Amino acid sequence: MSLKNKVAYITGGTKGIGLGIAKALVNAGLKVAISGRKLEDVEKAKAQLGNVNVLAIQSDVRYFEQEANAIAQIISKFGQLDIVIANAGLGKFAPIDQLSLADWQAMIDTNLTGVFHTLKASVEQLKQNKGYYISISSLAGTNFFAGGAGYNASKFGVVGFTQAVMLDLRAYDVKVTTIMPGSVTSHFNDHEPNEDDSWKIQPADLGQMVVDLLNMNPNVLPSKIEVRPTKTK
């Protein structure tokens, strides 16, 4: 895929992995739209990106109408949409007897249904432009752990959803990949990044990975990528 004049949309683009990917795509010369649930957070992230070809959108992926409106804003601003990165997500961890109904629903609605909403709202643009859809899952989408029932369920779902979508959209020359990171330096689960996170995957690393995917020979499709830190702490 030639990246010249391409337009990308990143959900959960205000910090962490999403912002790292946005920075990499802006640096690669793409026009970029980022979304988040709070407008002030999206505007702050846009200021960090420092580029006139960045669109800040308030959208909560739990609601299809908001994602459909986000896509409409992108088309109005840039005239097209070529790359969609479904990154918005959250994690709440507790043994099953302590996991609340609200936390379960929040993870399923955001991590799994949100991924569906983002693609459903954008799929016709991707088909039209022979684009690329990337979901950000997790190694928790293949490795289960105690206290992770809700998060595991959502991320296993993202992997299964994205791989099935990959088969659905190949006929339209739409490429589909799910990226499954291990430990990443981010604000995930209310963590504040610090120097102790230096051993982890950095958001910039995942940004470079996305750029590499977009630059890959069109005959090649890495449909599922597991990525880990080189070393453990």
Structure description:
This protein is an alpha/beta fold and 233 residues long. It has a single domain (7-227), classed as NAD(P)-binding Rossmann-like Domain (Rossmann fold, 3-Layer(aba) Sandwich), CATH 3.40.50. Helices cover 43% and strands 15% of the residues. The chain has six helices and seven strands, in the order βαβαβαβαβαβαβ. It has helices at 16-27, 39-49, 64-78, 101-129, 149-169, 203-215, and strands at 7-10, 31-36, 54-58, 83-86, 132-136, 175-181, 224-227. The chain has a seven-stranded parallel beta sheet, with helices on both faces. β2 (31-36), α2 (39-49) and β3 form a beta-alpha-beta unit. α3 runs parallel beside α4. The radius of gyration is 17 Å and the shape is globular. The termini are far apart. The mean pLDDT is 93.
Describe the secondary-structure layout:
Blueprint: E1 7-10, H1 16-27, E2 31-36, H2 39-49, E3 54-58, H3 64-78, E4 83-86, H4 101-129, E5 132-136, H5 149-169, E6 175-181, H6 203-215, E7 224-227
Parallel strand pairs: 1-2, 1-4, 2-3, 4-5, 5-6, 6-7
Helix pairs in contact: 1-6, 3-4, 4-5
Instruction: Please give the share of residues in helix.
Output: 40-55%
The total of beta strands comes to 7
Total domains, how many?
A: 1
What is the correct CATH architecture? Answer: 3-Layer(aba) Sandwich
Give the H and E element order.
EHEHEHEHEHEHE
Low-confidence stretches are: none
Amino-to-carboxy terminus distance: 37 Å
Shape: globular
Query: What's the average pLDDT?
Result: 93
Q: What is the class in the CATH system?
A: Alpha Beta
The largest sheet is: 7 strands, parallel
Overall SS class:
alpha/beta
- Please state roughly what percent of the residues sit in beta strands, choosing from under 5%, 5-15%, 15-25%, 25-35%, 35-45% or over 45%: 15-25%
Number of helices: 6
CATH fold-level assignment: Rossmann fold
Per CATH, the superfamily is NAD(P)-binding Rossmann-like Domain
